[in-house]
Structures are given as C-alpha cells and as structure tokens.
TrEMBL record:
Glycosyl hydrolase family 13 catalytic domain: residues covered: 12-424
Similarity remark: Belongs to the glycosyl hydrolase 13 family.
NCBIfam families in alphabetical order: PRK10933.1
Tagged with keyword Cytoplasm: yes
Species of provenance: Liquorilactobacillus vini DSM 20605
Highest taxon of source: Bacteria
GO CC terms, sorted: cytoplasm
Record InterPro entries: A-amylase/branching_C, GH, GH13_cat_dom, Glyco_hydro_b, O16G_dom_2
GO process annotations (BP): oligosaccharide catabolic process
Protein name, per record: Oligo-1,6-glucosidase
Any one GO MF annotation of this record: alpha-amylase activity
Keywords: Cytoplasm, Glycosidase, Hydrolase
Major location (coarse): cytoplasm
Amino acid sequence: MTKWWQKAVVYQVYPRSFQDSNGDGIGDLPGIIQRLPYIKKLGVDVIWLNPIYKTSNVDGGYDISDYQAINPDFGTMTDFKKLLAQAHQMGLKIMLDLVVNHSSSEHPWFIESRQSKDNPHRDFYIWRDPVNGHEPNNWGSFFSGPAWTYDTKTQQYYLHLFAKEQPDLNWANPQVRQAVFKMMNWWAKQGIDGFRMDVISLLSKPDGLPDGPQAPNAPYGDGGSLVANGKHEHEYLREMNQQVLSKYDWITVGETAGVTIDQAAKYANLDGNELNMVFQFEHMGLDNNRDPRLGKWSDQKATLTALRANLTKWQQKLANRAWNSLYWNNHDQPRVVSRFGNDSPQYRVLSAKMLATMLHCMQGTPYIYQGEELGMTNTHFATLDDVVDVEARNAYHELVDQEKIISGQKLLRYFDAKSRDNARTPMQWNDQKNAGFSSGKPWLQLNANYQQINAAAALADPNSIFYFYQQLIKLRHNLAVITDGDFQLVKDNDQDPAVFAYTRRNSDQQLLVICNFTDQTLERDYSLVPEAKLILQNYQGKMTTSLRPYEARVYLTD
Ligand code: TEU
Ligand code: CA
C-alpha cells in the first residue's frame, strides 16, 4: 500500500536565507509565514526547515545549544506555533531538522561534561586520554583539522567529527539516547510532522576508535568511513523507532553520508522499523577531485554516463526493498543548474527544466531546495572575505595556508563550483532592493543575478521554471506510475553519452522520459508507439524529430 509520504513532494527552506521580516538581514519564521502562499502555490506537500533552534551559529545552526528553544534570530516559540498552525491550515506539513550526532559546545550538557571526569554528563560525549602527547587517533574533521580537541581543564581530548564547537554525543550511553528520544517526543507534542536526521549514519563509533585510512601526504586519516553505518547504528534507530517514530504518522529521512544500497535497504526498510527513507550521496561525489586530499574541492564535471549509472543503480536496487529520496540540491550543495546543467542565459531555463524532469519522474520522494524552482545559480567568490561558510574557510586555511596543496586563487575557483554558500545566498524574490529578501543588509551577499532571476519574474511568466515544477508535482500526484512503476533504461541508453532515456511502467501505464544533457541537437529514435501522448516538454511550439539542446520530453501510454 502506498504511504502518504511516498506520493509527497518536499520543499526545503533554509530559514536564514528565505525571508527576513524585520530588516536585520536574517531570514526568520515570520518571513516564512509570509511566504507560505508561495510555497503552497508550487504545490508541494511538506516543508523541511533547516535547524531553527538556539545555536552559536558556527555551522549554520547545526551546532545546537538548546533543542527545545527557537533561535532568537529567527523568532520565538509563539512564531513557530503560528507557522505550524498556518501551514497545517493550508494543508502543508512541517518537518524539522534533528541534529543529534553532536550538539553545540555551548549546550549545557557539554558545559557540564567538560567540568570534571566524574561529572554526571561526562559520558554524554566522547573523551579520551592523549596518546604519546597527541590526539587519540589520526582522524581528521569533516571541516579540516583534527577531529579531536584537547581540553586543558581535564587533560583529555573530546571527539568532534565536524567543527570543534560540535562535540559528538556518545550514543553508546543509554542516557543520551533517552534524552534525545524525550526531546523528540516533546516536538511530537507540539504537532510537527517529521524529522530530517542530520548525519544519522555516524551515531555508532567503532570499538577502540582505530586509525582510519590515510592518503599519501594527507595530514589526517579518514575516520568518517570507519564511523559510517557502525555496529550499533541500526539498534539505535530501532530503539528510536520504538520509543518515538512508531507512535506518529511522520515523514522521516536520514542523512546518511557513506551509505551503500544494502545499508540503505536497512535504514529505510519497508517493515518501517527504522526510517522512511535516506539521502544517499554517491551522485554528489561524482565530481569530486581526483586528489583525495582535495575531496569535494574541484571544478570537475560529472559525466552523464557516471550519473546515469549511479541513479539507475539506486532506482533498481532499492525497488521493493526500501524507498528512495530524490534530490539535486540542498543547503550543502552547489546549485544544480550550474553543476549538472548550463547556467548561461541561453540555456539556463531549458536545462533547469530538463534536470527537474529527469529527477521528478523517478521513483522516490523528491526534495526541492529553495530557489531551485527559480533556476537560481551558483555565485562568485572574488576573495576569501566573500566566503562565510565554516567548511570552506577551514579548508582554505588547511589546504592553502598550512599544507600548501593548492593556490588560494585556484581554491576560490573551486569554491565557485562547490562551496555551500552557493546554496545559501538569499532567496531572490524580486528585482527590488536586496531582491526583496530584506530591507537591511543581508547576512550573506546576494547573487548578482537577482534582477534577472527572481520569483516575481517567474510567477509572471507562464513558461517559467516555477510553473514547470508545479506541473511535475501535479503529475506525481495524479499519475500512479510515477510512484509505483518500475524503472528501466531505454535499450542501449546506458551507452549514450548525451541523452538519458528511461521508462516507468506499472500494469496499466507506461511513461517514457527523454532528456538531452547537452547543448547539441541530436538524432535519436526511441521507436515510440503511436498511442504515446506527449504530456510534458520544455520547448514550446512545434515538435521536431530531433532532440534540441537540453530538450526534455515525457510520453505517457495508457
Ligand atoms: O552535513 C553532513 C555532511 O556530510 C557534510 O559533510 C556535508 O555533506 C558537507 O558539508 C558537504 O560538503 C550535515 C549538514 O547538512 C551540514 O549542513 C552540517 O554542517 C553537518 O551535517 C554537520 O551538522
Ligand atoms: Ca530577521
């Protein structure tokens, strides 16, 4: 039986960058309330809000100092309740971000924990003695530098897989798990509709915390690959499911860096005793640098062949075992039209629609990141001063200043392609002052193209990317085959370097999806049956026999 969240489409809001209501340059909850009609108009079912909790804001709110309080920059609990009530009234559900692999170092638990070795909260976190005067192992943090910080007060190191202000919680401690489950049940009582779970695959750390694999000349070893999908991971999630999730008709999605198909099949198993679905990351790593020391920092382009092979694998190998999530973008990823499409004025709209078609006709629950429905593009970082995000700034410090692996100029060009700030530039509402985002100075520089690319222009243009997404969402709601059909590549398409063509089929419908990933006009023959109806295309006017640049077509046979 189809679950409601299998037919749903989610819209992701990054509150800091969505809509400022009081001129302080920071997006806020009243701003989101103002924009609910816009989100409703798009036709989505669920809104996912990035963290809205009290935070020291070292990592965009992913360093939480009180899980049950609202970040005052964003408003108050009253504002949140108003947002929830208004969204519900409009038929929109709200899912929150659950960040419980780590807390902020300003969380009272950690403030207590670092006081003394026998503090009742000591074991809420992961403390170790120095080894030969050094860190307990070779792990590097995902945000550069070592994953350990020495605390002079108690002369031990604490573990932080992310920034040093984000100490990892010790999930092996049942008190930690109970405290988290209690907090989740409290949010359930407030009436929320689900959680997106931050780096949930990293909860269970390996016994003995051994060194990780270390690339030649790399400053640190890779702890992440040892931690991901650890020994007790599924035990913890099943416990969470029993004590919290099973009680509510929620939508839950785990952010699971390093997840394989077989692991995903466990996290998102159809028995429903863990999560509904996970975000896998393989397609987000296809354009990584070949030098492992540079990781994601690159201006490399993924080939269609690699992208298709990857997405096809996830479509087919998860079918009837678990449920996929579908995404091109989020607050950590560069803008899809710049990354996998073509953001030149000539092809931006066409290629954004093509990419949307490719993703939204697949099986899974699609996620749209704010501004994706406008075809917002990557931005440009002229100097390091323009770069705000902790991941990029720390990387610059380590790779340019300390290790001298790359020049500053080169790394800035890689930031243009990959920095998380690309996703976080303020939402472009109109061509007025600060794009209608704020009457004050925005916390992060706007993308310079807001006069051309903005919501007001999109809403006034019947052929805009916005209305194209609206059509795709309607299609999903109306055509069962998009939810339940099987997925097959068109014959020999796996060899095609330029076109992605697949079918979706159930017992009474067939969908044929054809996407030209290039700026070339191409000749292809997919031997269409005469009954096939063209139900969606990204060009207006007369059909041609050849595929035009970035052309996308969807045919239905029933
Ligand atoms: O991101 C997890 C994660 O795997 C990051 O390494 C992320 O993929 C990376 O920044 C992309 O280069 C989650 C959140 O989505 C992210 O915003 C947080 O910074 C991070 O966890 C820590 O909470
Ligand atoms: Ca504000």
